[in-house]
Amino acid sequence: MPNSSENAQMPNAENTPHLQAEELAEYFEDRLPEERQGEIQEHLADCAACLALGRQARVFTEAWSEWTAAAHGRASRARLWEARPVWTPPAQASGVAGKIVKRLAEGLRLLVGRAGDLLEAGLGPPSRVPAVAGGMMSVEELPRAEAPPKEWLLADEEAGCEIRIAVRGDASGRAMLSCALEGAAATTPPLDRVRIEIKSAQTGALMLAGRLSDFQRTPMTVGPGSWEITLETREVATPRTWILPLQIAPEGAE
Predict the structure, then answer these.
(1) Is the pTM of this model over 0.70?
(2) In Å, how far are 9, 29, 214, 227, 245 from 205, measured between CA atoms?
(3) Range in 56-70, 130-144, 169-183, 218-232 with the lowest mean pLDDT
(4) What is the pLDDT of residues 64-112, one digit of tens each?
(5) Residues contacting 137, CB < 8 A, separation 6+
(6) What interhelical angle do 48-83 and 34-46 show, nearest 10?
(7) What is the spatial distance between Cα 37 and Cα 194, in angstroms, rounded to a whole number?
């Protein structure tokens, strides 16, 4: 006759203590010894309570695996950009005395899902949690969609300002952009002295252009493709230009 310690290992639901969530998680990850994996499988077939707990553990395990994979990738990218300059070394623009030109060291690449959700791809700077910015159309004011927005705050310490980019996808595969230049009044020109251009990175064709102040309440919409967003200050002591490469592609694209 089996002893009590053997009974604790038997898969009979009436005689076996209920399983613990931690062990169920290990079971669904196939990390237990083969014999124990079989015992738990048999127990779940007989015990409704453990089966219900097992379903919860499985959902949690799958969600945790997906979340940690994304979180680890995001954390690695964040550490990379803590040590890496956001902008390429400044260059003098030809034809304009004293004008400084900077380019984002690594472009932003976004994949748009069928529901308009955005997935960050490539090695560009990671997005941050969206926040409401005074004077700029907040991500909450962008046209409503179920998919959450992405937002970047790209600091230029030498210029004493930051570029805020907010992006929301839609089900048609397009991206809606909101952009602002922020910082202390002494170092940040008013938005009506900042020109924004969006052009094709492949052909150079101009898709949109105007004063940045004109696009604070209305989003700028771009479709799939490779784009260059250019911000250029005008009528200021030190003219500056920032170039931000942006690639929009459907999810699953190479």
Answers:
(1) no
(2) 71, 51, 21, 10, 14
(3) 130-144
(4) 555 555 666 667 777 778 888 999 988 866 655 678 999 999 999 999 9
(5) 166, 178, 216, 217, 218, 219
(6) 130
(7) 64
